[in-house]
Amino acid sequence: KEALFGKKKNSLNSFENTTILAIGSGKGGVGKSTVTANLAITLANMGYKVGLIDADILGYSIPQIMGIKGVRPVAIGEQAILPIETHGVKIMSMGNLVEEDEALIWRGPVLSGVLEQFMNEVYWGELDFLLLDLPPGTGDIPLSIMQEVKDARFLIVTTPQITAKGVAKRLGIMAQKTNTDIIGVIENMSYFQCDKCGEKHYIFGSGEGEKLSRELDVSFLGEIPLLKEIREGSDKGISPVVDLNSPVGKIYKAIGEKII
Ligand code: ADP
User: Fold this and answer.
1) Which residue lies with its CA nearest to atom 15 of ligand 1?
2) CA–CA dist 256, 172 (Å, integer)
3) CA 60 → CA 25, 55, 119, 167, distances in Å?
4) Best substitution site from 234, 238, 241 to test ligand 1's pocket, by max atoms within 8 Å of Cβ?
5) What is the phi/psi pair of residue 158, to 5°?
6) Which of 6, 14, 27, 45 is the most exposed place for a label (fewest CB within 10 A)?
7) 3-state secondary structure string, 34-61?
8) Would you say the ipTM is above 0.95?
9) Domain 19-259, architecture per CATH
10) pTM for the full model?
């Protein structure tokens, strides 16, 4: 594979000892960005050095979820910028470079160019993990990463809905066709646990995430329930996984342990 970064002569980063995790989904709205942000915080809380690139350049939502809307990255010299750091995670998102509500109307090659700049011209320092929050589906950006980012590993987020699983499977097959490693599947919004009766209600169906992992012959990394505190956390920019001993924190920690 050609390197989209690293081997480049004037790249600021080598990512030699960095595990690159590209997090994708079949459809939008399955909670991919929320899972990516919370997973980044979890790995940071577990003691790892973590970077997060919002590779959903047009549909960015990481600044909102991480509580850094309106924060601008600092430039060092004329050639480089520093990522924004919060919750122990270094972050780069288009949302921190443009005005709020500005519509970006760019085609695939331009988007890949932005991603390349985020990798080469942002000074990341030493990282154990670099998470890439991909746009949903099997478009240009996931394909560029599969073909050009050396050693990128894919993680697929889906919900129990059959429609979400169907498209997620196509992403998985695309990864396999390009000889890209898939680290596993996370099922998000798996069930709702009633506060009153304690029973788990499988609102969107059940078992589809696990089924997908079997069909792709990859690991099933876990189920994340539908929880009000997760939704509120991503709306307010306060993650519920900051405490790894909280109920949500424990679920994420178990997933984090399967990834490291
Ligand atoms: P995607 O990146 O797949 O488009 P988002 O991460 O933006 O999805 O999530 C979509 C919405 O669902 C957000 O409002 C988010 O807070 C909410 N959400 C995601 N995961 C959960 C969950 N496990 N429980 C409750 N709400 C969730």
Assistant:
1) 231
2) 20
3) 15, 8, 17, 20
4) 234
5) -140, 170
6) 14
7) HHHHHHHHHHHHCCCCEEEEECCCCCCC
8) yes
9) 3-Layer(aba) Sandwich (3.40)
10) 0.94
